Structure formats: C-alpha cells, structure tokens
Recover the amino acids of this structure.
C-alpha cells in the first residue's frame, strides 16, 4: 500500500482508467476473476489514499480555521460581537446545522445570548429549540457531551425536549473562566445522525476554551463600562444638583428641591424634610413629598420626631438608619440626618410602600445629595435670618426717623423764635442758639437720610416721574450750592449743551442726586478749588457729570464708597460734616433711574462722578 498521503493527478487518471476497463469487461462477459480482483485492490488502494488525503486536508483546514478564529477573538471587547464571532466559528468548524451560546444570569439560569445557523443568520427567540436535558447535564457535571443520535442515546432518550424535537447529533461543552462555568456552547443537527465525532468535540472544546476568556473579558468590560457610565451619570446629576442649589438663597426652594431629588433618586413613595427648632429641640417638617403628585409641597408643619422617634437616633449617631415599620402595613423607612459642620440641622425621612428596600446605591446617592443640600439649607436659613434682622432694622430706623422729626421741628422752631425775639440776649446766648439751630439742621439731614434708606431697603421708595427741563434743574441746583461754593472760594462752572430735550425724571430726586454729588465736590475740594457741572445728550439719555479739583480717591476707597456710614479716615475728610449715607442713597436713586454712577478719580487731582437719565418722549406723556 502506498504511503503517500494525497493523490496526484496521475493517480486520478489511473483510477478512472481502471474503473472504465473493469466496466467494459463486465459488460462483455469476458472477465477473469484474478484480473478483476487485482484491479479492485488497486482501486481500493487509490481510494484509501484519497481518504487519507481528505482527512489530512480536513485536519489542516480545521487547524488553520481554529488559528484564525482564535486570533479574531482578541480584536473586540463588545460582548455581542464576541458572542457572534464565537458562534459563527463553532458552526464553521463543526459543520453543525445551528448552534447556541448560553450564559448564566445572576440567578444561575441559562439565557441564550447568541443563536446562529449554518448561513450565519441570527435565530429569533421562537427558534430557540435545544435540549434542556443536555444543557443542564453539562452545567451540573461540568463535562462536555457528544451524542450521535440523541433520540436513541440511552442517556437522553427519555428527555422530553429530545423526543419532542427529534434531536439527533448534538455536542455541548461548558464555557469556563476564572475557575467557574459561565455558560455553555451547544451545536446540533436534527436530521443527520453521526455528524460529530471525538475530533469535532476536541475542536469544540479547544475553541470554547479560548472563547471563554474572550467572552469573560467582554463581560467584565461591559460591566466596568456600565459602572463607569453610571458613575459619570451620577456625577453629572450631582453637578446639576449643586448648580440648582446654588442658584439662590431661598430656604423653601432649597428644601423642596432637595426632597424631590432624594425621593426620585431613591424611588421613595413618600418623603418628609424637617429642621430642628425650638428649645427644647424638636423636628418640624414643613415639606412633604407625594409620589402620586410627583412633587413636594409646603404644608402644615408636622412634628416629625413624634411620628418617627428614631430620627433622634440618626442624629445622635450622625448616620443614616433603615428599618421596617408596620404602622400602615409593611413600610421601609430611611432616615438621613442633615449635618452641617458635624452639627445636625434637620432630618430627611424617606418611605417605600412597595415592599422593596432601599439599595446601597440609592442610600449613597441620597446621602450625597443631603450633604450638598445641607450647605445650601443652612446658608438659606442664615440669609433668611439676616434678611429678617435687616428688615427689622429698616423698620426700626424708619420709625425712629419719623418719631424724631416732630421734636426736632419743635426745637428748631423755638430756637428761631428766641433769636427773633432776642433783643435782650447777649452775644454768647445768640451764639448758643445759632449752634442749636445748625445742629438741628444736621440732625434733620441725618433723619432724612435714615428715612430714605429705610424706604429704599423696604422697597417703598417710589419715583414720581414727569417731564422736566434741564434748565430748571440747573437753576435750582445752582441756587442750592452757590452759598457754599462762595464761602469756600470755589469757582463753579456749568458746561451745558444748547437745546437739550426734556427729561423724564422725578424732579426732586434728580435734584437730590445732584445736590449730593455737588456737595461732596465742594466739601472734599480744599478752598479756592474748581467744580464743574457738565450736561450733554448721549443717545436717548441726558448725561450729567460733576468734576472737582479735590483730594481724590484711591481704588480701595472707591470700592468702599457707598458702604453705609463709611467715610475715609484722612484728617481732611473727617473735618467735613457728613454721615456716610448720602452716596449710598444717591447710588440707589440713580439705579432706580435706570443708570449707574461712574467714578474717575486721581488722588490729589480730583474726581468725576457721572450718571444719565431718560429723555422724555410722547409716549411718556400719555
């Protein structure tokens, strides 16, 4: 017998010639037995050679295909793509009619993740017909299975799925990774018996050994990618929460948003947020979440620690507590303390009525939301307290200013009366009465400023706007400031454009603004200085500027200018009368006129203060 492993072209020609010759001799009836047997042996030898060549070719082809598939498996970490690659390779190398890749879920049950046929077409769920008996046996035993005819195989012929589906050739092998079975590979042919042999099973086991690693890596990558994506989503959500909480210092808005967010992130069906109040301390909840309404509301205050006494346990331990309550059926309750600088300021109570508990992730998210909200809630509380104190102060100042007007008017009236009828008064007494009158005048200015500040802070300062000419304002302001200008030997100049249109302003308030700016100009300019009032048109507004040659301001002083009761510390400034309120009032008035005060100043050379007002239009007159 030849030892060659494959046929040559000449061998094929010889086989054809021998068979043709035998055929002719048989048909002619002139065949010799010895000759015929010799030709048959010769043909048999050639066919053995052909069979060995095919087996060798099949083995070499399978090895090449296995190598190519193994190399391909490392090119992707997408789970479904890896599963499809493995499934196609299994069918290609085994010649199966169709195959399934099944992975274990969290409960240990098998789930078909890839199902393909010989044409590399994906099968639908309705075509998932495989032997549960064999797949469960592989999982339980951890061993591969090969059956050439499952219907007649004594191991499985009683299986309901095998008999019902008339399953024939089947191979199944476990997928192992990191010392555990993560699933199995299953191939079959329902028509042909004896399709698979031990070599096919060895090939399948070799392939699935490599494939298991690729599948496990893809699973780990998918889990890591999912966890990372979830973490990114959580960070983005927390960032959004931070921005929302920092939008404004509104206590009710901060509490409502915090409660709604926590309930939605934890799937709570009910929620309450309460702050610690009073002495002795108790927890009062004013905000409540209703799952049916999908929103939180501010309702009648409820003493939360009476309903949930364990709130104090959470506060004392400074940690979240979880427990089941049977108060209205089985409820899962989570109480989260609201801490600020390790001091409890309140609690959040979340409730689930669906029988499920709060997960560790939900608890972690709620705790992080509450930690962020604690800063906003406490700042909002402090801001509300400051606002309340500021409002009380403004109301007190307004009351004091109002109550001081009457006695000051009486003091000034009586002092003026005594001066008018004081022919019997000596020079010293006249001097004392003059001081009383001047002091009362300064007090009247201070009280007027305090009253204005109180009305501005209380939102009760209204403008009575009307059509006003620039000339009328310039004339009135000139009459007001000229006595002081002259007493200080200042040069007062007016630089007013011709034919300026009328203004739409509160006549007395614009006078008040200009009086304050000009009085500051002549007060903070040493004697023999210069003060200039400039007025011009700038688009749709009238622009005013007061320039002086005075002591000027540093950048730091400009930044502090307008702070209530603030005055510069230098000797010259302190020598001039003033309360530190005038500029603050002036700036507020200018803002209500729709403008702002611009300041340019050079120390030792002077300052310029400017603002603008609206030009009157026909629409304003209607």
């Amino acid at each position: 017998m030849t030892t060659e492993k494959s046929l040559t072209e000449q061998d094929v020609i010889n086989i054809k010639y021998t068979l043709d010759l035998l055929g002719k001799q048989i048909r002619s009836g002139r065949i010799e037995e010895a000759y015929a047997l010799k030709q048959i042996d010769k043909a048999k030898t050639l066919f053995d050679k052909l069979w060995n060549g095919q087996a060798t070719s099949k083995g070499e082809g399978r090895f090449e295909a296995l190598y190519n598939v193994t190399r391909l498996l490392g090119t992707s970490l997408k789970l479904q793509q890896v599963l499809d690659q493995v499934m196609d390779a299994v069918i290609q190398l085994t010649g199966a009619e169709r195959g399934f890749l099944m992975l274990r879920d969290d409960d240990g049950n098998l789930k078909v993740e890839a199902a393909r046929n010989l044409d590399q077409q994906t099968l639908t769920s309705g075509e998932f017909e495989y032997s549960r008996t064999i797949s469960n046996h592989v999982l339980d035993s951890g061993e591969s299975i090969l059956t050439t005819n499952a219907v007649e195989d004594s191991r499985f012929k009683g299986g309901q799925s095998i008999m019902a589906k008339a399953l024939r050739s089947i191979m199944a092998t476990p997928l192992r990774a990191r010392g555990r079975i993560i699933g199995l590979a299953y191939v079959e042919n329902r028509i042909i018996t004896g399709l698979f042999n031990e070599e096919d099973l060895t090939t399948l086991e070799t392939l699935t050994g490599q494939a298991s690693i690729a599948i496990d890596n893809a699973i780990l990558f998918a889990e890591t990618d999912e966890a990372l994506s979830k973490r990114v989503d959580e960070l983005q959500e927390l960032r959004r929460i931070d921005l929302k909480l920092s939008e404004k210092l509104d206590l009710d808005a901060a509490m409502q948003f915090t409660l709604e967010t926590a309930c939605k992130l934890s799937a709570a069906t009910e929620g309450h947020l309460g702050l610690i109040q009073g002495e002795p301390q108790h927890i009062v909840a004013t905000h409540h979440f209703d799952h049916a309404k999908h929103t939180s509301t501010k309702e009648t205050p409820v003493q939360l620690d009476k309903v949930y006494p364990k709130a104090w346990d959470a506060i004392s331990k400074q940690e979240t507590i979880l427990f089941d309550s049977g108060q209205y059926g089985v409820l899962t309750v989570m109480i989260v303390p609201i801490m600020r600088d390790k001091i409890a300021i309140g609690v959040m109570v979340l409730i689930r009525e669906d029988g499920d508990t709060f997960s560790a992730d939900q608890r972690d998210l709620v705790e992080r939301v509450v930690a962020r909200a604690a800063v906003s809630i406490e700042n909002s509380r402090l801001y509300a307290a400051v606002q309340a104190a500021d409002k009380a102060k403004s109301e007190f100042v307004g009351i004091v200013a109002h109550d001081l007007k009457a006695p000051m008017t009486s003091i000034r009236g009586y002092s003026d009366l005594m001066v008018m009828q004081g022919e019997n008064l000596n020079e010293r007494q006249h001097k004392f009465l003059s001081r009383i009158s001047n002091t009362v005048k300064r007090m009247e200015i201070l009280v007027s400023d305090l009253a204005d500040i109180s009305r501005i802070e209380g939102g009760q300062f209204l403008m009575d706007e009307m059509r006003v000419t620039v000339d009328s304002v310039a004339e009135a302001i000139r009459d007001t400031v000229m006595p002081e200008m002259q007493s200080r030997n200042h040069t007062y100049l007016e630089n007013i454009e011709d034919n300026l249109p009328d203004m739409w302003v509160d006549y007395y308030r614009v006078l008040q603004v200009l009086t304050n700016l000009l009085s500051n100009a002549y007060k903070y300019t040493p004697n023999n200085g210069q003060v200039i009032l400039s007025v011009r048109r700038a688009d749709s507004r009238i622009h005013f500027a007061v320039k002086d040659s005075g002591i000027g301001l540093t950048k730091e002083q400009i930044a502090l200018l307008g702070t209530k009761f603030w005055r510069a510390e230098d000797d010259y400034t302190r020598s001039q009368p003033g309360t530190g309120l005038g500029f603050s009032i002036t700036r507020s008035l200018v803002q209500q006129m729709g403008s702002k005060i611009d300041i340019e100043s050079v120390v030792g050379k002077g300052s310029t203060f400017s603002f603008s007002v609206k030009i009157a239009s026909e629409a304003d007159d209607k």
The longest strand covers residues 180-189. The chain has four domains: 9-66, 74-223, 245-379, 466-621. The domain at 466-621 is CATH 3.30.565.10 (Heat Shock Protein 90). Residues 167 and 190 are 5 Å apart (CA to CA).
